[in-house]
Design brief:
single chain, about 170 residues, mainly alpha, three-stranded antiparallel beta sheet, about 50% helix
Amino acid sequence: MLRLVAFALCTSSCSCFAVLPAARPRATLVPTTLVATTTRTATPIAALSPQERATTAAAVFGLVAQPIMWWSLYTLKMTGCGLPAGPYGLIGAAEGISYLVIIGFVGASVLSKATSGSGLPAGPAGLLGAAEGLSYLTAVAGLAVLGFQFTDYGFLPEAVPVEGGVCSNIQ
């Protein structure tokens, strides 16, 4: 019967040998390395500088805008019209704001690339960089859906549906 023996013999250079169970009754020494780990605590949002707060807020807006625009692009591709206005016009407003946020991210990134040679900074936890990358992906998807819109339906729907317009009967 094998016994699990768990202990480490440390040398002065912090290399250790752990005793591991072997198929034979004798133990085998396997070299290992000690790794010092540190724990990082999350910084509360109130402790961030105003610049970091603004960057975090922009990143959150950019990430929240992505699925709304994807839903809008899917609906546009399938029906030829955008999202319905929804209760009190909230869905349509979220759709319009999402388009503006995506265009803003791509525009800010292109401007940053032209002036400094690099895109937007990664931001806290890489959120701003993620929003930037997803915005490019979403913008390319939007251009593809725009092309499909003209070939499949032959028109671009109004930004705000009007009485008697092409998309006025979409619920």
